[in-house]
Amino acid sequence: MKKQSKRKARTSDQMRPEYDFSKGVRGKHAARYASGTNVVVLAPDVASQFRTADDVNETLRAVARLMQRRRGRGKHQTA
Prior knowledge:
The protein is mainly α and 79 residues long. It contains three helices and no strands. 0% of the residues are buried.
């Protein structure tokens, strides 16, 4: 036998007056948000090495600079 919930069932599907979204626009900021968002999920062992998103970004910028320097050196070397 299924137990009955102690909570009262809502008698109507009406939204409460304090939650008035009648002037809301669906997806108003969705395109702008999506264009500026790049979510990357880190493996747990990698994530444990960084406390904040700023730490991750700082480290990736340093690696990117090193990669850029390395590419730059390769162009100027003679075989």
